[in-house]
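Data availability (excerpt). The following record was deposited with the supplementary files.
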Amino acid sequence: MKRIALLLTAVFALLSTASATGADAAQAQDDMVLGKLYFVNLKEGEKPVMTGLSLSGNRCGDEAFNSKPFAAEGIRSVFELDEWIEFHPKASVGGGIKVMVFKHKADQSLYLKKALNDKTPGYIQELDLNKDPEAEANQHWGSFYLHPEEVNPGYYDFVFLYNNKVFAIMPTKFYKYEEIEEKSVSELEELMKQPIGQ
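Predicted structure:
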C-alpha cells in the first residue's frame, strides 16, 4: 500500500512538473510580439551590431507602411507568401550580418544552444545582408521571399547572426498569397498587434 502511495505521489509530481514547464513555454510564446527585435547573447553594456531595422514588401500596404523608419520594435512583420521582403538594417558594420528564417519556435533558447545551419529543425532559408558602398543610402542590403508552394502560412522567426553568433530574433507572420493584399494600412497594423499563437 505504501509503495502504491509513493508511486502515485511520484506520478503526480511528474505531471505537475510537465504541466508547469508547458505553461512556462506557452507564457514565453504569448509574451512575444511581432516585429520586435529580441536581442540575445550580449554582454552587459554591449551594443548589437544592428540596433534597428526597417523591412519593406512589394504586395501590401502603402509607401509609408513600407518605408517605416529604423526601429527595434513595431517593424513591419506581416507579409504574404511570395512577397519580396527588403532588409534595411541600421548597423555599425557594412556586412557580415546573416538572417536565417525558421518556422517559429515557442522555445527560443533552441537558437542559442547549437550552431545553426540548414539542417537545424525548422530551417527555411537564409540571406547574407551586405551594404553596397556605391548604392544610394536607402538601398536595401538584401531581399528574399517565401514561396507559397514550398512553405505554409504561419509564424516564422527571423534569426540574425554576426560572425555565426545569434544576436537578435524577430517573429513575423506570413499569410496566404493574396490573402491580405487588399487590407488597409490600419488593418495591417492591427494584424501586427495580434498575439503570437500556434
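Summary of structural features: Helices lie at 2-31, 110-113, 185-193.
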